[in-house]
């Protein structure tokens, strides 16, 4: 895709801390190290400070990467101004920031370590002499009440009367004259500073998106990972069970299968539906199960005779993933919905053909996503909630084997228990493709959908360090 097309699908507006962390980790997976981003950020910060033509610069640095940005700025400013750096010495410092501090020890910069409020008050004269102050105390991950001695730094900076340039995001309570936000604004009114993050780190799903998964609390009990109900089967027996196994491997604690088809699997709870296919006679049983489920996954192996049941499920489900035979008119719409069509199913949903080029396909998916999030499966998956668009290119031609789409739907259902629809669909596409590639590495074109299921946990829960 051309860069101008890709730029169209980058999100606008303010970005949150968790999303920015994901983008940065995606960039690191491409080879842009955290240290290189810090160098770019600090140099840009120094440029903003130089616009004020100061003779005396005071830089306030915390222990995190935001502090490292300030230390890089100090290196670039040392030859044109007198530079003093106040830095928080107590506690563990981010490795990149510690490396920058070591460099400053060999530069023409005066360092002032602080541990407590009296340390800050003893440096009051630096605040009074400064022509400009750089706030690099806390970054995008900051929250809660400001602790000492940071509170004393903020108080003295606010009372100085000189311009304050904030790195990325102002420390809570500080009087920022100018905010230099790196890559994307973290609050309204900030100016954007480009630090070289590739557009693809934002527009394509990557390993950084795994950081969006919530941590399982040490006090978690059975069910904390969510309960998924899979409704399907009849004409095709195995499809709902592939989805259900994927939901378990995707972190759901309890998975029930409501189906006329029974395949004995001890990890799944089977809810028997008499007959050869699902009918309205089964609604009483199904509705009882829908009421207790966090997410319903529906459509796999269902056939064409059960759509009235699908409609009732949609009307009563808080969150639902619709796949395969559920993707027909009238389109089912739950309170929150994910649709996982392949190209043919998408055409059936929308009544129109899909363009050949990726950018046009993405615009088409975005326009169609009026009732929920669409995950259009393909060589490059396209995910949209009607506003945002994300692309995924993980996967392998070996995944043309039957059942991999059922696995994707079940995985999306599990992630939907703890993530919003767009994030759950995006991450499901990424992990499903990664798991398929891992399985094909051992099975080649003889890979089965059940092989893919076994590789989901390793791709979803085992974090890689990209440095």
Characterize the structure shown:
By secondary structure, the chain is an alpha/beta fold. The chain folds into 2 domains: 13-203, 3-Layer(aba) Sandwich (Rossmann fold); 221-460, Ribokinase (UDP-N-acetylmuramoyl-L-alanine:D-glutamate ligase, 3-Layer(aba) Sandwich), CATH 3.40.1190.20. The protein is built from 18 helices and 16 strands. The protein has helices spanning 3-8, 17-30, 34-50, 65-77, 95-104, 117-121, 124-129, 150-158, 200-203, 239-249, 283-292, 307-316, 343-350, 358-368, 404-416, 421-443, 449-454, 456-460, and strands at 56-61, 82-88, 110-114, 132-136, 164-167, 178-182, 191-193, 227-231, 254-259, 269-272, 295-298, 319-322, 336-339, 373-376, 381-384, 389-392. A 9-stranded mixed β-sheet has the order 10-9-8-11-12-13-14-15-16, with helices on both faces. The chain has a 7-stranded parallel β-sheet with strand order 3-2-1-4-5-6-7, sandwiched between helices. The chain is elongated. The two termini are 28 Å apart. The model has no long low-confidence stretch (mean pLDDT 94). It catalyses: (6R)-NADHX = (6S)-NADHX; (6S)-NADPHX + ADP = AMP + phosphate + NADPH + H(+); (6S)-NADHX + ADP = AMP + phosphate + NADH + H(+); (6R)-NADPHX = (6S)-NADPHX. Residues 20-203 form the YjeF N-terminal domain. It is an enzyme of class 4 (lyase). Homotetramer. This is ADP-dependent (S)-NAD(P)H-hydrate dehydratase.
